[in-house]
From TrEMBL:
Protein name: Methylenetetrahydrofolate reductase
Cofactor(s), names only, from the UniProt record: FAD
Keyword Flavoprotein: yes
Annotated EC: 1.5.1.54
Protein source organism: Pseudonocardia ailaonensis
UniProt entry tagged with the keyword Cell cycle: no
Length: 288
């Protein structure tokens, strides 16, 4: 998988494990729609609860075995002992998954609440990277934050944390979502200046609704760039024209990033693929 990113530009997509039969059907429609477009990989997030975690293992395994897609499973350290983490990593290997996104996770219920590690578990993502790497022949990705992780004291500290994950063995990083390219490109430059050349993929959330615009900064820590709210304001009460203007804005963001030589675009699909399909066509990844 890392070879394809190196040969980029490529695109990849992120799903979450479906909660019910309807969600399962929606996810599989999205997977089948994206499959012929040849994404470099397809990832499935890892939730906080036991049943959602089983669904991540099952869904990622099914993508690995029942489709032509390369599957990547996310894994977090939340509420897991190291022995349990080893067991999940073993389940991934048994399901034919050799790509893992190793993230620390947030306290269940309140992402900004106090983080308490499992008494026999891990505290930070770099430990998780080491554990996955020691457990087999895995390609491992990590999370990156163009505007700093909300718990990091400042951007310098945040960069050191990212470098620690890469030194622990991470093969690539995927960024948190953002709305203008500058913060991402600054992070990429700072990584390069630190002598680090692992691929950094921008995480792209297609701007499809006013809710995404409202909640984006809160969820990501990435500020809204000057003029964005004003640009979208005329469409606030008209979901169709909001989506059209948001898709144009997302296309422009992706074009700027590709123009800056990024090796891949990672789309947060929220299990709906139409916007991603439209974007990868607009961007010339596939014929229309
Ligand atoms: C692409 C992407 C995918 C994600 N997928 C998921 C998912 O599937 N499931 C999920 O629950 N969450 C997911 N997340 C969210 C992620 O779990 C949270 O953002 C979490 O708060 C941070 O994870 P991390 O891996 O960056 O943690 P870390 O790198 O461990 O960092 C967490 C905090 O600890 C600090 N820190 C790190 N090391 C040290 C140290 N040695 N000493 C002191 N402080 C330190 C960092 O500065 C940071 O503030 C994802 C995020 C991204 C960007």
């Amino acid at each position: 998988m890392i070879d394809r990113i190196g040969d980029g530009p490529v695109f990849s997509v992120e799903f979450f494990p479906p909660k019910d039969e309807q969600g399962e059907a929606e996810l599989w429609r999205a997977v089948r729609r994206l499959e012929p477009l040849d994404p470099a990989f397809v990832s499935v997030t890892y939730g906080a609860g036991g049943s959602s975690r089983d669904r991540t293992i099952r869904t990622t395994g099914r993508i690995a075995t029942d489709t032509t897609l390369v599957a990547m499973a996310h894994l977090t350290a939340v509420s897991h002992s190291t022995a349990e983490l080893r067991h999940v990593i073993g389940s991934y290997a048994a399901a034919g998954i050799s790509n893992v996104l190793a993230v620390r996770g947030d306290p269940p219920g309140d992402p900004l609440g106090e983080w308490t590690p499992h008494p026999e578990g891990l505290t930070y993502a770099d430990d998780l990277v080491r554990l996955v790497k020691r457990s087999g022949s895995f390609c491992v990705g990590v999370a990156a934050f163009p505007y700093g992780h909300p718990r990091s004291a400042d951007l310098d500290v945040d960069l050191q944390r990212l470098l620690a994950k890469i030194r622990a063995g991470a093969d690539f990083a995927i960024s948190q979502l953002f709305w203008e390219p500058e913060g991402f490109l600054r992070l990429r430059d700072r990584l390069a200046a630190a002598g680090c050349d692992v691929p950094l993929l921008p995480g792209i959330m297609p701007l499809l609704s006013a809710k995404t615009l409202q909640r984006g900064p809160e969820l990501s820590g990435a500020p809204l760039p000057d003029g964005l709210a004003e640009r979208m304001a005329p469409y606030a009460d008209d979901p169709r024209s909001f989506r059209a203007a948001g898709m144009d804005l997302t296309t422009e963001l992706c074009q700027k990033l590709l123009g800056e030589g990024v090796r891949g675009l990672h789309f947060y699909t929220l299990n709906r693929s139409l916007a991603t399909v439209e974007l990868v066509r607009r961007l010339g990844f596939v014929g229309s």
